[in-house]
Amino acid sequence: MNLDSPIAYVVGMLASYLLGSIPFGLLISKAKGVDVREHGSKNIGATNVGRTLGRRYGIATFFLDAGKGFVPVLLAGIAMGSLNRPDMPPQELLLWLSFGVASFLGHLYPVWLNFNGGKGVATGFGAILAVYPFLSLAAVGAIIVWVGCALITRYAGLSSCVSAITLPGFTLLVAPVAKFLGIFPQIPGDSGGWAPWAIVWPYFTLAAFLTVFVVWRHKSNLARMRAGTEPRIGSGKKVIGRPAAG
Prior knowledge:
This protein is mostly helical. The protein is built from ten helices and no strands.
């Protein structure tokens, strides 16, 4: 696949958006005879699916939603020869990153659901994980932050916001950390290991873009936290269709 043609690029962007628009959480719940939009937070994402149907369905939704972001970015990177090229020209890099933006916006605003979709955490994570090596390493750092925050607070929404907020900072740390660990020696950097801003800014900009949308989409979760009504992970779950214990 050659993305040098403007037509091929537009088709690829449209395909990325449509893939991102597939509401896997809703499809899984419908297969179980439930409309997840009528339960819990009424969101089609992994957290609400897990809270409504059970953990394994939530995990399945997370990986499927992450795949919606990962696959188009990976395929575009292969087609453009962009993988493992941390010193790409900004114009070329922005074209590659735009496929992740398209799939991310598809999840948030799916055409199939009157543009009312999920919150973008899993799809955004999948998209940045495919941007190897800069954003893939930053994504690993962000998911570690999510796990740590979730273990401490047991709030999925808050953990997503905190993780997203740290993501832009992780994009700045990738080069010095990689240099310290002795990996990715091809990452350009000065004597201190920091990559030049001319190389980093597209990654940082995408990370900041995802952060703004993720935090904005979680405003209802944050409001429920302030009101003391936001459920914690593992507490007060009502799994639809599961027989009551005893």
